[in-house]
Specification:
It is a single chain. This protein is 32% helix and 23% strand. The strands form four sheets. A six-stranded mixed sheet has the order 3-6-7-8-9-10. A hairpin with a 7-residue loop joins strand 8 and strand 9. The model has no long low-confidence stretch (mean pLDDT 87). Helix 3 runs parallel beside helix 7. The chain is of the alpha+beta class. The protein contains seven helices and twelve strands. The protein is globular.
């Protein structure tokens, strides 16, 4: 996820004419999306660009595990919508455009997609913390997700395993599952995870976890 680093010199040069027009050099989401190139990963937070930098191996492993687990569940349960990972930009406001680690969109949201970005907040969003991103993921990005009607926001800490889960109640995020070993999603019907599965040092097999979820769901019927 994004570190608070400056864009490479080649990309900074393209921003100079835009940035000089405003105090502090802030840019809009439209200007950011026009500037963004394939293969470049960054967030625009309050009009400032935060470049993505290589992540720790445990961060990458946790994102990959959860992405495959959710994708497998959606496919097995034939739940409509789209799951995306890391490289997809979502425009949340005039000066906020993010690339979350994982995001899920319901069918009515998919219908609103633009060619190169999503002009709508996802239903479900996951950010995995890095030392350089924790302040934004828990602060400015948290506020933006809350303000733009994300229904569920998971913040996972691969270093200290202090995972936090938020769901929308009215217009605000409320933390849930704080004392539960099994955390159930409120926006992806029937999906849940065990906290023990989210340790990047001891990741279980995706197929084993998926089988347990599907078996538990069959018992409910």
């Amino acid at each position: 996820m994004p570190a608070a680093t400056r864009p490479p010199k080649r990309l900074r040069a393209r921003l100079v004419p835009v940035a000089k027009r405003r105090p502090g050099g802030m840019i809009t989401s439209e200007e950011f999306l026009d500037w963004l190139e394939p293969g470049v990963r960054a967030d625009l937070i309050d009009g400032e660009i935060h470049m993505h930098s290589p992540v720790h191996y445990n961060h990458a492993r946790l994102v990959s595990f959860l992405d495959h687990l959710i994708a497998g569940y959606l496919d097995a349960m034939e739940i409509p919508g789209e799951l995306h990972r890391e490289s997809v930009a979502i425009r949340l406001g005039l000066r906020d455009t993010f690339m979350p680690d994982i995001e899920f969109f319901a069918p009515h949201q998919v219908a609103q997609f633009a060619a190169c970005h999503m002009p709508v907040a996802p239903l479900f969003c996951v950010e995995v913390l890095s030392p350089s991103t924790a302040k934004n993921d828990l602060g400015r990005k948290f506020t933006a997700y809350e303000a733009h009607a994300v229904q569920e926001y998971w913040i996972l800490d691969p270093t200290r395993a202090r995972h936090r889960f938020f769901r929308r109640v009215g217009g605000l995020f409320v933390e849930y599952g704080t004392a539960e070993e099994r955390v159930e999603s409120v926006s992806i019907p029937g999906f849940w995870v065990r906290r023990a599965w989210l340790d990047p040092e001891k990741l279980p097999r995706v197929s084993t976890c998926l089988g347990e979820i599907l078996k538990a769901n069959r018992r409910r019927r």
